Known about the structure:
With 176 residues, the chain is mainly alpha-helical.
Amino acid sequence: MSFESDLLVWLPHLRRYARALTRDPAWADDLVQDTLERALRKWHWGRSGNLRAWLLTLLRHRFIDQLRSRREVAVDDETAPWQQTPAPNSEIDGLLLRDVERALYRLPLEQREVLLLVAVEELSYQEAAKVLQVPVGTVMSRLARGRERMRALLTEPMTGDATSTRTPLKVVKHAP
């Protein structure tokens, strides 16, 4: 297979990771396009190694560069669009998905990146460490802290939620 066809195999993974990082489909598509352009420019025929990890590394670096240049919204900003997203049609699944998404975006970026790479993209700790350019122990530590924080966020009421400011309803008995 050619390098270009190998890139196409990983395209859905790159799009998923980009959308998880940005939560903006247009920005994610631009990020993937920039990543693929960079990959085509930087590829050397003699290069060996994990193509997927290399592509995810390129995407992550491009994302960080764009965050720095945009400076228009903090990643963990309370007013960010993903904090206000409506639930999908299926109410219970939609509410659970919304809560997980909100909790994910309340994590520090370092923990969120590791969680996405290991849990969603199914990279090994070693592959995630290579993508993030940190030691394997750091990946394991960030993952453990991220999972712990996610559990805590999912068991506590969300701040800013309409349900967290309501007073409990009183049970009223009807008179006969």
